[in-house]
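Summary for the steering committee. The consortium agreed at its last meeting that each partner would contribute one worked example illustrating the joint modelling workflow. Our contribution is presented below. We chose a case with several input lines so that the handling of multiple components could be demonstrated. No manual editing was applied between input and output; the record is shown as generated.
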Amino acid sequence: MNTRIKTLCRRAKKADKNAACELLKIYYADIYSYLRRLCGSRHDAEDLTQETFAKVWSSLDGFAGRSKFSTWLYRIAHNTFIDWQRRNAGSTQSCPDQWWQGCIDQNPGPFANLAERQLAQRLHEAVERLDEHKKNVVYLHYYQGLSIRETANVLDIATSTVKYRLREVFKILRTKIGVEENGFKQRQTIPIAKGESL
Amino acid sequence: MNTEKKIEQCLRAAPKPPAPDGLLDKLQADVPAQKVKTHRSSLRRWFAPTGRSISPWRVAAAAAIAIAVLLPLSYGATKLIKRFITISQLPTIKVDLPDGGALSPDGRHFAGLTWDSELTVIDTSTGERRNLAAGFYGPVVWSADGSEIAVMKRGGGGKKPSLRAVSLETGETRNLMENLPDYQNWSHQDWSPNGKLILAVRTPKSGVHSAVMVNLENKEETVLTEETEWPYPRFSPNGDWVSYVTKQAGRSILNLEKIDRKSHVKYTDFPGEIDQPLWSPDGSHVVFMGTQRGINHQYKDLWAMRVQGSQFVGAPFPVAPDVEQMEIYNWSQNGQLAYRTGFRLGGIFTLPVDLQTGKAIAAPRRLVRRSGLDSYCWSPDGKQIVTPQGSELSFISTNSGETIRNLSLPEIERIGRGMSWSPDGKLIALCGSDKAKRTGIFLITVETSEVNLQVPLETGLPNLDPTWAPDSKTIAYGYKGDVYVVKVEDGKPRRITSLSEKQINEKVYRPVFTSDGNSVAYISRGQGGQERILATTIDGQETRQIFPSKEKKSSVNIFDLSPDGRHIVFTPGNNKIWCAPTDGGEPFKIGDISNVGGNAWAWMPKWSPKGDAITFIVTCEEYQYWVMENFLPAAEAGGR
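What follows is the complete predicted structure of the assembly.
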């Protein structure tokens, strides 16, 4: 674990409010964005972020530092979301908002050309349609940048399971965008049929 | 860059939802000021009760407990866990069976219907394939002893569809039921173990599905329930009970009803949708696909419900997660649950053509990538095509393939095959049903999205193929084997095809207005499935044959006329697109989509209003066949 984070944790355990606020500043945006993706609504994500950090402060003393602080934090966030989902079974929205659609259009960033923007959008749509297990590994490993081991720790599963799910995700995403690829190839390879009789 | 890297790069570069302003302040305000209370772990408290160093005696005691108690326990537990779920693909099935399939009771054969409507049987261990007979459709249902397979036989030659039992041994067929309604109105679902009863779903009109039980001896029909959604009726393994799904106040209800109708129990507490219930071979459980309310709609699990005597026992419990892509077939008596997984991909392609010759002048390119397409049409100016997506119409640029706008149609529940945009650009005619369960031809005002039911019609599957006359005043459509025209101003339909013009039992459908507006061209399917394109004047007085020019057996399936009326384009239902002059010339192939995929087929060609392009739908399906075993807890006494 990063020495600075370690020091901040130690100080926060001793009720150093400044250290706790420092930790907050470092992590709150990541935790919010993860929860926002999970729950699909801005207001719920805000509430869940607050709930997550409330749990962090009340159980900080139990954090032994065996894993990274961020992994521990994500795990609390993940469990907080699971609890929230159980509490709200029957009333949660079945179709989360697709905040990233606007984001991609407004901010070309890495999606410089239209084709890539469309591909990115389709991939994001496809990820949203994955089942919860697969979606979670994509969120943590790719969107939040956690390593395979950290993702496994957060989700409380084996690293081999994470790898397996990522392989499955790629299989699905490849199939989903494969038709488009075929379309491009086909443009070059389909011959114009000539005068064959029926 | 390969596809995998491209996907990975896109995922890693995904934007993050930005944290809202003020959230940090809120979180900082929540940080507790006082020192968090320290506590020791329970393990530490046990090993060091005084709070100082770890007691060696306690460590020794813990080791003794672990050896004496925990190890034997874990050994016992391992012995108890004897049952493992086995999920295995049926690699021997190398053919797509899009129209249904089922595993034989002994699990040794898998029967299914191919794209060519052939009933094929595959040996699940060797992969050896045998075609039993052709011309079938609908579900595939085995007899309880595995000697016969019940399938629907197409009508034709003066006969209506029938339900046949095909012998596994010889391929010979015998009639189970005759004079059945068309496939969209009647579908058999199960065959009782004693071979005397058939369970079916009757669909008299769109959005109405009746679960019926038919006695094969006296043909007496008992209606078990009438629902707005598919009821999935199935016999229990001993044939005394029937299970089916009903809906009440938005809740899915699992029903068990005795076949003599003297006993009926319901399970009403499942918090979500119940689909495809199926009995376990020993009758101890009913499994079903369940979508829990509140969870993403696509998040489906396989659930099981215990059944004992005439009662459900306890609550449903999940047995296999994430089964949203599964289509369950059947559960063989040897304990294998057979199912299919797969994708349906496709889109709309455009093929530039020379209007004068009808020949393609470039290769086809994909315009829209979407699956499950049933309908679309060109705008009169040729700049857009419109296609339904859910309860919306999407307007797509024919240049770029981008969606220009969406038009919401909240009243429309279902859109059937065929739609047409009036040449004056004001109205779109489509067929379907609305939320008030009215079926027929609807007119959509393009500007305002106002919806009007122009022609109410009673039909199970609203595939009416409406088409506008060039003056935008008349619509033609196909209905129950005839072609009708209706003037928009009076809304009174008039049949233009008549028995005197047709051979008896010949069916006509898929009309297209000719460019002069005086006639309607349509497909006529005669005895033996031979198809012709005829054109009848809108007063119904004259009929002429457009295609084929010579009397030979041909398959048209679906066609369109060029704007100048000099050519037809048609797709016989495979990977080829054909064109033929209407003056009697020979047909010629203008497109081939075999490169899209082995199972890709093209259909619904439409000529652009200017005549410079032909669009068509491509569908490509890929399936895998699997069996799942041992996923239920050990069966308890009391099975049916």
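Chain B touches chain A through 74 residues (CB under 8 Å). DSSP finds four helices and 46 strands in chain B.
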